[in-house]
Specification:
The chain is α/β, with parallel strands linked by helices. The protein has one domain: 3-Layer(aba) Sandwich (Rossmann fold). It is about 45% helix and about 15% strand. The chain is built from nine helices and nine strands. A seven-stranded mixed sheet has the order 5-4-3-6-7-9-8, sandwiched between helices. A two-stranded antiparallel ribbon has the order 1-2. Helix 3 packs parallel to helix 4 and helix 7 crosses helix 8. It is globular. Bound molecules: S-adenosylmethionine. The site of S-adenosylmethionine has 19 residues, from helix 4 and strand 4.
């Protein structure tokens, strides 16, 4: 057998085993509970910008982006900008290894209701600045979304090849609204990633000063959304691969 195929098959079998391993499942849950209580996900950078993610989710995103090769990414929730520089770096890599036939550059469209001056300054001085556009406003503001759509068309000339990552306000209502506003930007075979579905699964989490909780969070929004939209399905293979992260059942693939 071709050695590459053989390795891939072994990996698939191992992933199937680990995803059914009760001890590993329990340890992963215990680990994420503890990590969350210590704000572990706040302590990483991507190209000098703090990225509030777990390394497992970052690897999953890299694999998805490299495999699906989106021409643009819309992301909500910028914070310090690490997810913007991460997504931009993936777009730049794709441009290097798989340039678009049109000669256009791939691009990230990033939205946050509050882009702090010091974060904006760093992002505006960043070497990848030409790979992204920042928008300040609510991610569910119809006028802002229209502006994003016009800018995508302006830069890329069509809406093909889109991917969307949601990581802003984590209440059920807000995420459901985001899902309904942004699903049209996701191309068939591409992903709509919903972060912080983990809120539903943490036993000891409290979110002081936040409006989300068990029963009111991105996971409940995903379930609601999927009950009304049959174009998307949860890609469980990613949960099975990474075992712990902040987006269980949050990697949605458009059929
Ligand atoms: C979890 S952080 C984003 C982390 C970032 N994606 C990363 O990986 O580093 C959430 C961000 O969502 C923003 N936010 C909250 N409500 C929002 C809304 N209605 N529209 C857009 N952004 C919002 C907050 O200002 C905050 O910067």
């Amino acid at each position: 057998m071709d050695p590459i195929q053989k390795f891939l098959m072994e990996c698939e079998q191992e992933i199937q085993l680990q995803s059914g391993d009760e001890e590993f499942i329990a340890l992963s849950k215990q680990w994420i509970e503890k990590a969350n209580s210590l704000k572990y996900s706040y302590h990483f950078n991507w190209m000098d910008r703090p990225i509030i993610q777990y390394p497992t989710d970052i690897m999953a995103l890299h694999e998805i982006i490299y495999k699906t090769k989106p021409t643009y990414i819309i992301e909500t929730g910028i914070a310090h900008g690490g997810s913007v520089t991460f997504n931009a770096s993936q777009m730049a890599l794709l441009d290097l290894v798989d340039p678009l036939p049109s000669g256009k550059k791939r691009h990230v469209f990033a939205i946050d209701i509050d882009i702090r001056d010091h974060n904006r300054k760093k992002l505006e001085e960043h070497p990848l600045v030409n790979y992204y556009t920042l928008y300040e406003g609510s991610s569910t503001d119809a006028n802002l979304i229209k502006k994003v759509e016009e800018d995508i068309e302006g830069l890329q000339h069509n809406l093909d090849g889109g991917m969307v990552i949601l990581d802003s306000n984590h209440t059920h209502d807000h995420v459901l609204k985001e899902l309904n506003c942004f699903e049209k930007f996701v191309s068939s075979g591409n992903y709509l990633v919903v972060f912080d579905t983990i809120v539903e699964f943490l036993e000891n989490s409290s979110w002081p000063g936040r409006d989300w909780s068990k029963g009111n969070n991105p996971y409940t929004a995903v379930i609601d959304f999927l009950s009304q939209n049959s174009q998307f399905e949860i890609d469980k293979s990613i949960d099975n691969q990474i075992m712990f992260g902040v987006a269980p059942s949050g990697y949605l693939k458009k059929k």
